[in-house]
Design brief:
Number of strands of chain A: 9
Shape of chain B: elongated
Radius of gyration of chain B: 21 Å
Distance between the termini of chain A: 58 Å
Oligomer: heterodimer
Order of helices and strands of chain A: EHHEEHEHEEEEHEHHHHHH
Helix content of chain B: 40-55%
Helix content of chain A: 40-55%
Strand content of chain A: 15-25%
Number of helices of chain A: 11
Largest interface: A-B, 53 and 41 residues
Radius of gyration of chain A: 21 Å
Number of domains of chain A: 2
Largest sheet of chain B: 2 strands, antiparallel
Amino acid sequence: MNVVLKSDVELSFEHRQSAHCESGVISSLLRHHDVPMSEPMAFGIAAGLGYAYLPFLTFGGLPLFAYRMPPGHVIRGLTRRLGIRMHMQTFRQPDLGMEALDRNLAAGRPVGIQTSAYWLSYFPPDMRFHFNAHNLVVYGRRGDNYLISDPVIDILVECEAEALKKARFTRGVLAPKGMLYYPEYIPPQLDLPRAIRKAILFTTGMMLFVPLPILGIRGIRTVARKIRTLNPKDERHNKLLLGHIVRMQEEIGTGGAGFRFIYAYFLQEAAALLDRPVLAEMAQELTDVGDEWRRFALNAAKMCKDRMSMDYGLLADILMHCADGEERIYRRLRAEMK
Amino acid sequence: MKKHEVPQQNAKAFMGHSKLLYAVDEAGRYVPAPSNGWEAEEIVLDQAIAEYQRLTADAWNRARAGLASPLEYHMYHERMDVVLLSQTTGFFRWRVCRHLKPGVFQKLPAKIRARYAEALGMEAARLDVLPEQP
């Protein structure tokens, strides 16, 4: 059996389900180290919100649509803005990676790891897809099973060592390379107001001013235009594309509307913390935009299923509306934080 | 979204689990709000899975007819495509395409097969086997 871990280990770890894996893992690791940090606050300070349409990265032959910043951004952004130092380690050899995991458990330290979502045996089969930047916390080992607190799952789960190894060391885009991390140093005083201000400026700047038509608000408008000009003759492909957009939006890592709601929650918390009622007002408006994103998803899905007649113009209009709403909010937030 | 509007449509893909959303309560405060499924998500998930099933069945038929190697079937069966398989194995895309041809695949050395077997999470010996049903 195992050389490092002679007996079973079960560390105490509070499992709290979260909406997004990365912000979920990092906030629960911080809470484990006695830092009161909600998932939305972690997501907000990390400046996790975003939008990107990346036609050159394909996913099953269809372009990538992302409603947040790339994987790794949340952990890096959050810890950098708060002055927290993370221990982050990758491994060339899978066996060494598994040993390091055991050593951390033996030392009484729950750790976050990056995995593929496809090889995790506890995932419902229909929810398994090849996405290499899933994050979870390992808090123990019982026999040949690792005890896992997966932030997107409502209960504690277990995964066989062999499957976990495969999930940690799968290759390809965003290959996890066994990435393992935990907070190494946490400053005694965290300057939240400063971090919040910087983070809001980052997110709004990103969404408003990046001079590329595929990122931020301009990215949303580009996609809206693209949908408006889809060739109606090619309905089979269009349906796949729309379904894919909705799936990227609502499923893969919470998705578009979900991220808007997390960010709105963050703004609400920030409003109280900084005593700036405008932020709470913006939270409300962002909630409305999130609802609009969901309306897009529902309409597009129904059109894919022929429960509604296909109307590219309507979908494009909703997206334009989202873009306008978000632009207004980000400009107002920016003015407030400057 | 209001908390009472959070959809609870019992998606079968969730298998009794629920995912977490955040929604607004009566007083306008954000609170965690689990959802056990939503129509829109279910439709697009079914669509994506049906597409993989279609590709898998096509590949199975082609492999049965000797027009493609079983590798193509296994690739789609593991919800991959040529791009993803190329990224996961580290082979160039054109090489993966070439290996999808039955003649070329049969002559592949064990080392290359092992790479495919690892990427697809199966034993190398099973790469040649086409199941009775797609």
